[in-house]
DNA sequence: CTGAAAGCGCTTACAG
DNA sequence: CTGAAAGCGCTTACAG
């Protein structure tokens, strides 16, 4: 049925060893022999069994990817970046999620022991950071994509959050907005503190230190962003801009401002963070700090592959630059 | 280093055969023996090597998934449905994309020959339908998730497009909208024709046959949806509703109507199709025909798994019911 | 109920 | 430059 290396060897009149050698372009093989074997391989449409190769070689040429959820707005971009890079290198990508609690985590770790993949790209592990650290200590190459700004003992890629916050501040200042409301994410996240620092630092330097009453913690959701704005307005606070720590919260803020009869951006300019696909489709379209999600995926994958193939001293971590995407929610028409 | 079945056998004082038997709960094993072996497995933290099992058994307990792109708005839901189902069954999920042309297709087909996975879930193959058909003919179990409404020779799951179109019509009619504009998708797609038929059928039955001038072909994009509305308005056409064949086009229509000074839903009600995540976040929030993307993923995965494990006569195809999600773009406040 | 042995399809020293 | 043989870690008739 299936064409095996033995078939190729027999038909080409050489040993399996020789076929293997031309397959892996390792060791010296006579030019004519190589050409002939190649021809037979081609003719038979022979492709080595990945299972057998993996078993014999002790590695699967497969990368694992663990994500908490596949339906988050920016996950598609990350995934695309990882898949493209991994495929390019001739590796496979085994996908796992850990959204069903202990159960899925257990299932996942057993896959690790099963040597189903050689290394792992993990995205923002919720409660699994300790587990990943343990796997890494036991020898599994791991690269983390972490928007939360934690800094584990193994390589990770993140966005330049502080710089992103600073850029948002500079953009608002260039529009003469001196009294911004900050709808922050959960303060336990390192990325949130970084965005806050970068933003506040620029305002302070410019002689407009943030009003502490205008820095509120929220939860990265649309509902949370809306609620924060409504609450502040209800307290009679005034502000001429909103810096939301992610786009969903910014979209919630947009709706709340509109409901309160405020015009965006005339009365209040709004800037988000992430640049998820729907940021360009809101009304008004949302100005935001772009996180290079796809590039983060590509980078993480490349770091992992470098580790697996032994080239390059991967070790280090990376923070990718962000950029402000200007749309109508800050500059009008 | 690695714990193998031989280690377990040695320490438990039994043969590898016996260990294998308790592992696979097949064949009769003495109760006490079984318990003892189980205990040793537990203690050693033994997990069978997936590669070796695959080689010996001739199957990998892995499912392949081929998608054209990971960044489409509804892809995350489909993927989540597939992954959940596949993981639940103890299978792995190998992810492939075919967005880089012939190159990635070639890479993918060689993975098929490599027996890296036992069966395939494919999403809306752009130009790869023929290739998939060939693989299927050669014996690869394939299930297609196809929103385009093609009906290949192998099992596929789709949404009930005709019924969805009819439901949209009934909803608009219940709101006394008798003169709808239809912003259709590309007419070469079966799903588009089905949505059109269902929609037009209900209107005709109700004594309000569609005005052919108000049925325009578009391209499923936001820009296309906006352009269609602008063009019709420019021609001086009047309509009291828009049925867009997907949400992106509906979002474009929303913006074009607003730009023209028309109120939604007072002057023109708008209904889309898909129910992508951002449908609930537009202003006004978009009424739309919900396609059960996650469920489509789950169903396709289940059909494939049934085929792989030999249970159930999978053969047939499935059309999953849609439902109208009513939001402000048709009913106001 | 249990085990020895062959086999899955490769790779890799080792020897020539 | 080339090949015979062992080995990767399992499963599965076959025999008892």
TrEMBL record, chains A, B:
Residues 3-57 form the HTH lacI-type domain. Coiled coil: none annotated. SMART domains: HTH_LACI. Transmembrane segments: none annotated. PANTHER family: LACI-RELATED TRANSCRIPTIONAL REPRESSOR, LACTOSE OPERON REPRESSOR. The lineage of its organism: Bacteria, Bacillati, Actinomycetota, Actinomycetes, Kitasatosporales. This is LacI family DNA-binding transcriptional regulator. One of its GO terms (molecular function) is DNA binding. Keywords: DNA-binding, Transcription, Transcription regulation. InterPro entries: HTH_LacI (IPR000843), LacI/GalR-like_sensor (IPR046335), Lambda_DNA-bd_dom_sf (IPR010982), Peripla_BP_I (IPR028082). It comes from Streptomyces dubilierae.
